Amino acid sequence: MKNLLLVITSVIIFSSCNKSEQEKSWELFINNHKENSESFFVTAATIDTIEGNDKLNLIINATNFHFSNGNQVTTDIEVKMKDVLKRKDIIYEGLFTSFVNFSEEWLLKSKGMFKVDFFSEGQRVYPDTNITFFWRDELMNSGYFFYRFIPGVDSVWRSDSSSSFFYEDPLEDYLVVGQISSDVFNDTLSWINLDAPVYGPAPRRQIIVQTYLANFPISGYLILNNYLSVVRLKPHGCSNCFIVDNIPNNANATILVVGFDAAAEQYYLSRNDTIVGDDIVITADFQQISEQDLEIEIENLN
Question: Mean pLDDT score of the chain, rounded to an integer?
Answer without folding.
Answer: 76
